[in-house]
Amino acid sequence: NTVMAAQMTNAHRRFLQILMSNGITEGSEARKLHQRCCETDKVYYAHDKLDDFISTINSHLQPLFMQIRKGISEDDGRAHYAVAILAETELTKMASDYTEIELELFRKTMDLIILSETGFASSTDILNLADQLKTKKMKKKEAEQVLKVFVEDKWLSEKNGEYTLHTRCIIEMEQYILSNYQDVARKCNICHSLAIQSQVCESCGIGMHLPCVRKYFRGQTEPRCPKCNEFWSCDAP
Q1: What is the pTM assigned to this prediction?
Q2: Which of the four pLDDT bands, split at 50, 70 and 90, describes residue 237?
Q3: Contacts of 124 by beta carbon, 8 Å cutoff, 6+ apart
Q4: What does CATH list as the number for 10-85?
C-alpha cells in the first residue's frame, strides 16, 4: 500500500540528526552521508535513491511542520540541503538562538539585502542601522560582532564588506521571505526558487540567479530574455 509512509530506520534518524547539526549540507556531502548512514545501520543503500530516502524522512517530519529542503547556492549553483521549519511564524528557528535586538538587526539587514537591486548590503549601511533599532540602540562595535556571529552561524555570508543571505537562510526562510516581501521577492525564472542575488531584465523585470544566467546563455552570442525576448543587457557573469 503506497499511502503508508515508508518506515523510518536508524539510518534515516542518523541522517536527519547530522543534517540538523550541520545547519546546511552540500549535495555531494549529503550523498556520502546517505551511504554512510545506510552502511552503518545496515539499511539497504542505493546510490540514486537519496531523494526517496529524504522523502521518507519528510513524511515523518510533516506533522512537526519541518522538512528537509533542497536549495541551490547562488554563487556556484550547487545543490544544498537544510532542515526548514515550515511554521509561518516570525523567524521561529532563530528566535531561540538570538536576543530580540540581534533579531531586529537581522531583520533590518534582511530588508536591505532583499530590497537592494543586487542582493547585497554593505557593512556601512548595516552598521548605520544599528543606532536606529527600536529595541535599543546598538553600538557599531557590538553590531559588527553580531554580524560576525550571523556569518559563523550561516545566516549571512560576507564578501569584501558586502553581506548577502547565506544559502542556508534562503532554503530555510524561503516561505517567510516570499510571504513577507511579496512585492519584491523574486523567484528565478529558470529554476523557480527564490533569487536574492540575481540579474534582472530591464524590459520585463524577471530575475535569474547568476549560475542560472550562466547556464542559460552558455554559447549564445546575443543573450535574450527568456520571457520577453529583449536583449539581456546585464554583463554575463
Answers
A1: 0.76
A2: low
A3: 161
A4: 3.90.1150.220
Domain ranges of the chain: 10-85, 91-174, 185-236
**Which CATH code fits 185-236?**
3.30.40.10
Residue 28 is which amino acid? S
pLDDT at 104: 92
Cell of residue 39, nine digits: 552502511
Q: Distance between CA 208 and CA 192 in Å, rounded?
A: 9
On whether the 91-174 domain is CATH 1.10.10.10, my answer is yes
Those residues with Cβ within 8 angstroms of residue 130's Cβ, 6 or more apart along the chain or in another chain: 105, 137, 138, 139, 140, 142, 143
**DSSP string spanning 211-222?**
HHHHHHHTT-SS
**Identical fold at 91-174 and 185-236?**
no
Structural contact between residues 130 and 142, judged by C-beta atoms closer than 8 angstroms = yes
**Phi then psi dihedrals of residue 196, to 5 deg:** -95, -60
